[in-house]
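Before a colleague's protein record goes any further, I have to sign it off. Alongside the sequence sits a line of tokens, each denoting a local backbone shape. I want your independent view on whether this chain really folds as the tokens say. Where you disagree with what is written, explain briefly why. This is what I was given:
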Amino acid sequence: MSDIPFDLHALQAFVAVCEGGSMIEAARKLGVTQSAVSQLIKSLETQSGMLLLDREFRPSRPTAAGRLLTDLAKDLLEHAQRVNERLIDASRSEVAQIRLGGVDSFSATVGPALVRAISKSAREISLWSGLTPMLSEQLQRRELDLAVCTESTVNDTRIEQHLLFSEAFVAVVPKKAAEEIEDPKELFRQLPLMRYTRRSVIGQQIERYLRHIKLDAPRRFEFDATDPLLNLVAWGMGYAVTTPLCLWQSRHCLGDVTVVPLPESQLGRRNFFLLSREGEWTGLAEEVSGITRQVLEQQISPAIMAALPTLPKDAFSWK
């Protein structure tokens, strides 16, 4: 990538000399010394490799190249001024555009509350759903401003990662089956396991946890989305290992399922991380963190606890 050939301050000084007719007048207009104006114009001539002022005249006059540069520079300086004014307006009032990304369960549950809360300070808001690896790449490519992911996978030191919260993995069984068979181990033996695909982060995390607690089940059903997986559990087709937020995402199924707590373990929780670029969107990141906790504490957690009383008390954690 080549260097930018002109310095805006030098261009501004040159135009001021040409319009004012002298370096003294240009210095007065810009509020700098005559020596500073002279140095800026010399640096401009060095950068361009052209003589821009004919100094044999008193006061100096622009050369042919100087006259052309004056005309072109006026448009460039006016555009730079408009850019600066727009940035100032945005910082004083509202941000032009905010692009958020989140894993599906987060975007579908906490996402609407986030959009509503920040809509007062942004003209345009985008909320994209996707898998953690894709969201991380989009953030690094500057296609997203903030991303909420479920695994800390970014090795770029320019990306800041903050733990938002965690949630426990739980087993979900058909309500009718749970009424007939009280022993969870027997339920797991009789029903097939509805799995998340191994291509997803949640699928990989659950598989690690199942191996850790020695819950072995034949691989028969596999899904890349929560809705079909929990629909089949609600219909009595099998059981699943999922999370409270995923359950709330598919809350139309809650009346037909029962939660069975699983053994506690560090591997038995799913962490949510807020990713942002270092030094950018600091205020927004803090706002997203605060809104997320508020929504989970005051809305989602009480509602899902009421619908599923056997959900663990530490279903959500901010430790």
